[in-house]
Amino acid sequence: MNVLSIQSHVAYGHVGNAAAVFPMQRLGVEVWPVHTVQFSNHTGYGAWRGPVFEAGMIRDVVRGIGERGVLGTCNAVLSGYMGSAEIGAAILEAVAAVRAANPRALYGCDPVIGDVAEGVYVRPGIEAFLRERAVPVADILTPNQFELGLLTGLPSRTLAEAGAAIAALQARGPRVVLVTSALCADTPADSLDLLAGAEGRLFRVRTPRLAIAVNGAGDCIAALFLVHYARTGSAAAALGAAAASVYGLLKRTAEAGSREILTVAAQEEYVSPSEVFAVEAV
Q1: Residues spanned by the domain of 10
Q2: Whole-structure pTM over 0.85, yes or no?
Q3: Average pLDDT along the chain, 282 residues, taken 10 residues at a time
Q4: Rg (CA), the chain
Q5: DSSP letter at 209?
Q6: Which residues of 69-87 are buried (b: 16+ CB within 10 A; e: fewer)?
Q7: Domain named Pyridoxamine kinase/Phosphomethylpyrimidine kinase: which ranges (predicted)?
Q8: What is the CATH number of the domain that holds 174?
C-alpha cells in the first residue's frame, strides 16, 4: 500500500506528517510525505521557527513523483494542516492527478481548522476552502467535534445531532466521516466518544477520557483510520482499530508525563493495541 501524505511537518515533536508517517509505516505502508510547512516545533509552544511552503513547491514535488511513473500505484492521498488556501488547491490537484492514474485511490482529508480550547487557528481562507472545495472531493473526512460544527453549521450536543451533522457532511461528498473526539449529552464525564458515519449507519467507540492535552493525536488517528479503511473497506473495523491504537498511544504518553505523543516509543500500539473497545452501531 502506498500513501501520498501532504501536510505540515515539525523537526521536534510529533504533529502533521511527524505524527502520521511513522504509524502508517509501522503498519507496513509505503508513505510518500510532502510537507506544507517545515517548523521547528508545533505552534502549541507559542514560539516556533521555519517556513510555510509555497503552493508551487507542493506542485513541483508531486509533479516529480508523477514523473517516476508511480502515481498509478498510489492507493490513497492524505492531507492535514494546509498552511494556506493556495496550498489546499495544490493538494486537490495532487488528488486529481492520483485519481487520473488510479481511479480507485482514496482521498482522506483531515480538515484542520481549530478546536474548542483555541478556536480557529488556521489562516484566513482555509476554513472556507475546506468547506467549499475539499469536502466535496474527499472520500474520508476526519474532523473533531468543533470542526464538525464549523463545516456544517449544525450542533452536535446530542448523539442524534452529531449523527445529523455527520449525515449532512456525507451528503456533500465524503462516503465516510470520522469525528475524532466527541462529547455529547450522553457521554459520561470520564469517557470520550469517537463516531463514524458510513453507508447510512453510525458507529461509536467509547474510551476512557485521559487527563492529557497534547498535539498530534488527531493527525495520527486520521492516518490510521485511512489505512485500516483502505484495507478492510469497513468504517466500523477502521474505527475500532484506530481508536484502540490512539488510546494506547495517549495512555502511554500520559503515563510518561510527556508533552509530545510517544509516536516511536509506543509503536507496538499501532500493530497490537494493549486495549480494545467495542464498536457499537448507534
Answers
A1: 2-281
A2: yes
A3: 97 97 98 96 93 95 98 98 93 98 98 89 92 97 97 96 97 97 96 97 97 94 98 98 98 97 98 98 96
A4: 17
A5: P
A6: eebeebbbbbbbbbbbbbb
A7: 75-258
A8: 3.40.1190.20
